[in-house]
Amino acid sequence: MKQAIAAGVLLIVTFAGMAADAPEAAISNGVIHARVYLPDPDNGYYRGTRFDWSGAISSLEYKGHSYFGQWFPRYDPKLHDSITGPVEEFRTGDSALNYAEARPGETFVKIGVGVLRRPDEPRYAFRNPYEILDTGKWSSRKGSDFVEFTQDIGDPKSGYAYTYRKTVRLVSGKPQMVLEHNLKNTGSKVIETNVYNHGFFMLDSQPTGPDITVTFPFEIKGAGEMGGFAEARGNRIVYLKTLEDADGRRQVASSPIEGFTSDPTDFDIRVENRKSGAGVRITGDRPLWRIFFWSVRTTVCPEAYVALKIEPGQEVSWRLTYDFYVLPNEGPPPAGHR
């Protein structure tokens, strides 16, 4: 793969046709236009074992600004992070359901992926391409402004089973997208998990640097040095320089973020590009459990976690809301964007 940078716009160049057969759906509310990948065990854009297979967006545009796209240089459908945002990962602790209890050769469950086989290894590693034994039953339902995904799966050996439903919905007449989730425990064991959205924002495909700011509704505490590339100032993360990515080595600005409370109103994050004028606000309806901030030259990712505990026969719902906007008194979108 080759990475090209022209007129300050960062482009990822891929081999043509690599994902040509990946199924996707186009949706619009007349304000936002988006394309959403559909789960498919054989031809899906993402077939890795880290992230939820549903809801990855190949493109989203509002008022000529773009928000998501391919941020990584090498595409492989089974690579753990060959996926576009926003996308979610479910974890139990730092692994998955039943991983700690399973012996080598036995099964564990990754919500949104399926039933996997544990190899002979000392600990779970999200980068590993685990063997998938069962992806369950996936179904999709599409309207003009939404796509709904459902996964039904059960693992009799571990006792875990669930019905997971996720809807990507564009709100009528508004520059707003909602991710609606419902997880029902249909197994015999309690499901304890946390889930975060990685985001993978690419605001107008501009390189990550001083034009980007990330804002929280609370004063940031506990932030590390972030490699000297960025720092916390009050309730904002600001960049001190433009991150570089050359010769196979990429600069990373990342850190845990503390300072939030159990009040769900603390789940309120803004990512803005002052140069291009693109902005997005992400809010959730459940208390934050953890925040980890990660960014490289091509993408900015405030990863906000929520924790879930679901008894057998019970279900839980949660939602994330994305408000897209254009900053006032900013110039036009970069050349090449509609």
Descriptive key words:
five-stranded antiparallel sheet, 338 residues, Beta-galactosidase, Chain A, domain 5, globular, mainly beta, ten-stranded antiparallel sheet
Report on this structure.
This protein starts with a strand and ends in a 12-residue tail after the last strand. The protein is globular. By secondary structure, it is mainly β. Mean pLDDT is 92; it is low at 1-9 and 11-17. The protein is built from no helices and 26 strands. Strand 12 and strand 13 (160-170) form a beta hairpin. The chain has one domain: Distorted Sandwich (Beta-galactosidase, Chain A, domain 5). The protein has strands at residues 2-6, 9-13, 24-28, 32-37, 57-62, 65-66, 88-91, 107-110, 114-117, 131-134, 137-142, 146-155, 160-170, 176-185, 191-197, 212-215, 230-233, 236-239, 245-246, 249-250, 253-257, 268-273, 278-284, 290-296, 299-310, 315-326.
